[in-house]
Amino acid sequence: MKVVVTGTRGIPDILGGVETHCEELFPRISDMGIDVTVIRRSCYVSPENRRDQYKGVSLVDVYAPRRKSLEAIVHTFLAIVKARRLNADIVHIHAIGPSLMAPLARLLGMKVVTTHHGPDYDRKKWGFLAKTMLKAGEWCGAHFSNEVIVISQVISDILRTKHHRTSNLIYNGVTPPVRSSNTDYIESLGLTSGKYVVAVGRFVKEKCFDMLIDAFTALNPEGYKLVIAGDADHPDDFSEMLKDKARRSSTVLTGFIRGERLNQILTNAALFVLPSTHEGLPISLLEAMSYGLDVLVSDIPANRLPQLAADDMFLTGNVDALREALRRKLANTQPRTYDLAPYNWDNIARQTVDVYLHAIEG
Hints:
The chain is α/β, with parallel strands linked by helices. Helices cover 39% and strands 17% of the residues. The strands form two sheets. An eight-stranded mixed β-sheet has the order 3-4-2-1-5-6-7-8, with helices on both faces. Strands 11-10-9-12-13-14 form a six-stranded parallel β-sheet, with helices on both faces. β9 (196-200), α7 (209-219) and β10 (225-229) form a beta-alpha-beta unit. The radius of gyration is 20 Å and the shape is globular.
């Protein structure tokens, strides 16, 4: 069986929730004897990341314009054509925007599996036309895919109620970390172990990092600093405003980090905060939980994991509620233990291959 993957920016070491998902999932599927090719967007491939293979997964770079309005759809069209030339049995399309190309993949004679990572049309960054196209992509994925995977029950309910489509619920996963014993990186940032709050993600409006900075600054907890690990894929007025707000409030910005640097940040944090108004099933939250961090999240449905309690949440979009929740958490923050068995990547890989087999047989 040959599987060609598109909809992702690419792997490895390319920031993003879908990208982390693919980087963990597809090497495991390759280890199960499946021939996997991930098609990467050329604009995210750096000289340091130029390669044709990663942990048994073939990598093919295909042109993508570095414009957020055109990048995904242009690249996915070219990737579907490339998949046909590679004689793919299955095209696995990630996210609803790229799923607009599901009919083309079917027309070219390939089986289609789509993974719905969340209703991206709810993101604040998109205008009317983009939201319309994303909704059309969701419709195409629901109606033209041989099989649909969803990463949360919330998304499964959306597909069932809006499109009368059944789906395969397969969660995002998390890899148990090996905690860092080093502190040189956090010390270089002026941080002290156990004395900072961390948030991780891209600098887009729905992450609400501006609100987090406002709430933390208003609280001004003695001895604590705020750290935001991330940056913007496409710099814009919002990301520049956020960076300016961070500088004026003495918030520590690390930029995009992975590996040992992110390991040190998560190993030594006191509290992880995710104030988003939109998520699918946030990998950054699962990663924080895997480190045993105390967490504070907005009360959107995607964040209401069964492992969390009401005390771990605050009213979405309310800066006063976030400030009060930060005060409450920092007064009694402590390490946590969570049951992360449902988010095991090896099980997720096996479940995904079962979906492929169903698609082929169907």
